[in-house]
Automatic annotation (TrEMBL):
Residues 1-58 form the HTH lysR-type domain. Signal peptide: none annotated. It comes from Candidatus Faecousia excrementigallinarum. The keyword Calcium does not apply. It holds the Pfam family LysR_substrate. GO terms for cellular component: protein-DNA complex. One of its GO terms (molecular function) is DNA-binding transcription factor activity. SUPFAM superfamilies: Periplasmic binding protein-like II, Winged helix' DNA-binding domain. This is LysR family transcriptional regulator. Belongs to the LysR transcriptional regulatory family. The lineage of its organism: Bacteria, Bacillati, Bacillota, Clostridia, Eubacteriales. CDD domains: PBP2_LTTR_substrate. It comes from the Bacteria.
């Protein structure tokens, strides 16, 4: 049954007149009368009694009125929610991020985004590069931070270049150098992320033709920093990870320099307005807060 019929019935009862209901709905009295007759025919019993004194609800009409009002209210709420979603003012975003972005970018990005879109809920998923790729492929997240190149099944928005640097204990021999050529790293004990998460380190060393001696592996970026501080080895890490780092680490750039490209990745199909708004918010925040 058409919502228009329910609306005609509810307005007629509210205003007590076919004429006033027609005016309220931008229709004619004869049209409203016809709609109500159709509604009564569909139900199989009268809803209104009409007399010179006006319009009265039948017993059946009294029982059905609250249900019709509830249906119209629910439809109004549904349409409002759909409008908000179209305008990126409602919905849920499932967001994936690796550690350095989650710690150093996301707090500011989320603050600015929620100031503009307070009714959009963000669900955060923290993982490594391999997690981002898997979550995107399996539809577990709507958007994720990745490093390029990314899997071909996603579209990407490049965001920033993040240099890779060597971190050393302060008494390490390589601290004497202002910048470290990759060949100086031969024979050093490395602390690295797990294989699936160490794309950047292995890329930097592979390009230099170096096969590193990996002494320890971990899934935790900050465990690497702590282990280097204790003299257990050296590591190649993104500079963003070291933002605000403690002074008991030595940091040296590679020469020639090597960087990772941080990007946003989204599925090709099914653009979600709130997600698109979030992506715009990320790029705006980075323009205002250059790294």
């Amino acid at each position: 049954m058409s919502l228009r019929k329910y609306q005609a019935f509810v307005e007629t009862v509210r205003l007590g007149s076919l004429t006033r209901a027609a005016q309220s709905l931008g229709s004619t009295q004869s049209r409203i009368s016809h709609i109500l007759s159709d509604l009564e025919e569909e139900f199989g019993f009268p809803l209104l009694s009409r007399s010179r004194s006006g319009i009265q609800l039948t017993q059946a009409g009294k029982l059905l009125l609250p249900r019709m009002q509830a249906i119209l209210q629910e439809d109004s709420a549904l349409q409002a929610l759909a409008r908000d979603i179209r305008q990126a003012d409602a919905g849920t975003i499932r967001l994936g991020a690796f550690t350095s972005v989650a710690v150093h970018w996301l707090p500011g990005i989320i603050r600015d985004f929620q100031a503009r879109h307070p009714r959009v809920e963000l669900k955060l998923f923290n993982g490594d590069y391999a997690d981002m790729e898997r979550w995107l492929e399996e539809g577990e997240i709507d958007v994720g931070f990745v490093t390029l190149p990314a899997p071909g099944a996603v579209r990407t928005i490049p965001l920033a270049q993040d240099p890779l640097v060597v971190i050393l204990p302060r008494d390490h021999r390589l601290c004497a150098l202002e910048a470290i050529p990759p060949e100086e790293l031969r024979g050093e004990d490395f602390i690295s992320l797990l294989q699936d998460s160490a794309h950047d380190t292995h890329r930097a060393l592979d390009e230099a033709g170096i096969s590193p001696h990996i002494k320890f592996t971990t899934k935790d970026d900050y465990a690497i920093l702590a282990m280097v501080e204790q003299g257990l080895g050296i590591a190649i890490v993104p500079q963003l990870l070291l933002k605000g780092h403690r002074e008991d680490l030595a940091v040296r750039p590679l020469t020639p320099g090597v960087s990772r490209t941080i990007a946003l990745a989204l599925p090709h199909e099914g653009e979600i307005p709130a997600v698109e708004a979030f992506c715009r918010s990320v790029t705006a925040w980075l323009r205002e807060n250059p790294q």
